[in-house]
């Protein structure tokens, strides 16, 4: 069992940066693929970024590529999402997710554990 707690969300202006954190409890954090998803009001949850156990493999949604960076610190059981050049269209609840395994996956239904989410609001 893995429990995930996100933090770092908030209200920012267009062009600003934020760093989200996701702290994981439990053992064997380095055996999990970690992902970030987001859900805007009235929309379905969508993939943002994912990272494999070592950090050597990452994947990003086209909408965030070049602006967002996912990283992890296995010693701290934490995964991060650095978000630069934020746009109003990035406004959403951001969720951290974990999946036991080696391969980075993009579908939400392939992740086993979820955090409660953290709100990000980007004003124009």
- Radius of gyration over C-alpha positions, nearest whole angstrom: 13 Å
Report strand %.
Answer: over 45%
Beta strand count? 11
Mean pLDDT reading:
96
Helical content (DSSP H or I, runs of 4+): under 10%
**Which structural category fits the helices and strands?**
mainly beta
Distance between the termini: 40 Å
Order of helices and strands: EEEEEEEEEEE
Low-confidence stretches: none
Count of individual helical segments: 0
Give the biggest sheet.
7 strands, mixed
What's the structural blueprint in terms of helices and strands?
Blueprint: E1 3-7, E2 10-13, E3 18-25, E4 32-39, E5 46-51, E6 58-60, E7 68-73, E8 78-83, E9 92-100, E10 113-114, E11 118-123
Parallel strand pairs: 2-11
Antiparallel strand pairs: 1-3, 3-8, 4-5, 4-9, 5-6, 7-8, 9-10, 9-11
